[in-house]
Amino acid sequence: MPNQTNLDPFVPEVLEDPYEVFVELRRRGVYQLPDTTMFIMTRFRDVEYVLMHPELFSVHGLTEGLTRDTPEIREIEAQGWPAVNVLSKADPPEHTGYRSVVNRPFSAQSVKTLEPRLKEIANRLIDTCLESNEIEFVSQFAQPFPLYVFAELMGLPEEDIPQVKRWCDARIERMGGTMISHERELACVRLAVEFQHYLFHQIEARRAEPRDDLISHMVTASVEKFGGRSLTTEELISMIDIILLGGNDTTINLLSSGLALLLQHPEQLDLVTADPSRIPNFVEEAMRIESPVQCLFRTVKEDTQVDGVRLPKGSRVAVMYGAANRDAEQFPDPDRFDVRRPNARMSVAFGAGVHFCLGASLARLEGKVAFEALLNRLGTIRLAEGKNDFRYAINPVIRGLKELHIECDPPADTPSTERSNPRL
Ligand code: HEM
Q: CA-CA to 89 of 20 to 30 Å: which in 95, 103, 197, 270?
């Protein structure tokens, strides 16, 4: 049973398996981490309240404290472009301006047009997985899938994907910043600056000759909220970077946690296999019970109260999405994985309010397309015996399995369906 000293949700042993500590934190309500100005929200209603009140809770310093700020780091960063607080790092009214540029391309309607291409990507990756009947699912499917989708959206050449992956990994690794060495953080910052230079060239190419992709859309947009001007190079780099970071590890973890949950609950797998129209609700339930984004931070803008607890101006709030999504007040029998749960979609896995996930429709479509293709083409799937330790990466923000080893017996007539692009 957790006690007063181990209620810190950010220590490695709790990050590995946080759910018991969440029970105690939810029982206590708004919890001030001893000797800090950090208040931890774990109840569904408190998390929702914070997210719905951007006038009281600012996103400035969203991930502050996760990274170091040393003279060496600043020196490397000076070789790139200054980061601009866009999208998840901006409060209204600036946030509204940035969001207006990308809302349409990420709407459910626009995203739906990507479905055939997403199917091709999933099927191509499954073709490679099927070269052996033993698959390490995280590296062979879950990691490449969202990267191919990102490259497709942004119009990046396919051959750049391995390098984009290295840059993206370094950006995510740095978010667990104080948990890596200073040396390693410097290497991550160098890679981040390299990525900025790469994006700069992509942006310049579209300025010279716009194409039919999201970078061109952002380059050519005039932003009414900003007096009709277009976005600057710094803003564009920050927008693309945030879209990559927002959509990558989150989707990887949805796919790998989702498949692990199905394989650990064979009766739920049977329900989904028997009726694939249950896949979208299964995807919601997987995100509820193993929320890919576990926590982000807010800063209190003026003295206020949540649930009777006084929060002074300037104090920090840890918004624990993963804990809120297991609150029995919102989800009866919250630790039970149930692909038929009627309100699975009502979780805060995608946040709430003005910062509600920009990529929610895309992520939902990616989940649907990936699991439809996987269940259809892998046939009987099972966990590879003795190979899985179900270890989660230690990261305060993102929760995901390091590895997932599976075996499958594909049906003899597995069609490698609908490939219109021979390059993929
Ligand atoms: C399973 C997949 C995903 C999960 C669980 C997820 C989760 C979240 C959450 C919780 C937030 C709210 C952050 C806050 O409250 O401050 C958010 C925002 C955001 N997400 Fe996602 N996300 C996913 C996929 C994606 C994808 C595919 C993209 C884009 C390709 C994306 C891009 C973004 C962006 C840009 C924001 C910031 C929005 C804003 O502040 O206006 N996400 N996401």
A: 197
**Any ligand 1 atom below 6 A from CB of 292:** yes
Cα 192 to ligand 1 centroid, rounded to whole Å: 20
CA distance 40 to 34: 11
Which of the following CATH numbers is that of domain 4-219+229-409: 2.60.40.10, 1.10.3720.10, 3.10.180.10, 1.10.630.10?
A: 1.10.630.10
First to last CA, the chain: 50
Q: Is the CB of 358 under 6 A from ligand 1?
A: yes
- The alpha carbon of residue 271 and the mean position of all alpha carbons in its chain are separated, in whole angstroms, by 27
At residue 69's C-alpha, the angle toward residues 63 and 73, to 5°, is 120
Strands 38-41, 316-320: pairing is parallel
Tokens in use for 272?
A: 């989904």
Please state, as a whole number, how many other Cβ atoms lie within 10 Å of the Cβ of residue 390: 14
Provide the 3-class DSSP secondary structure of residue 380: strand
Rounded to an integer, what distance in angstroms lies between the CA atom of residue 212 and that of residue 196? Answer: 22
Q: Is the CB of 88 under 6 A from ligand 1?
A: yes
Question: Which of 356, 357, 371, 399 is the pocket-test mutation for ligand 1 (most atoms within 8 Å of CB)?
Answer: 357
Q: Is the shortest distance between the CB of 54 and ligand 1 below 6 Å?
A: no
CB 247 near ligand 1, within 6 Å: yes
pLDDT for position 424 = 33
**pTM, 2 dp:** 0.94
**pLDDT value, residue 68:** 83
Q: Cα of 90 to ligand 1 centre, how many Å?
A: 14
Mean per-residue pLDDT, 144-148:
96
Residue 423 is predicted with a pLDDT of 34
**Ligand 1 and 250: CB distance under 6 A:** yes
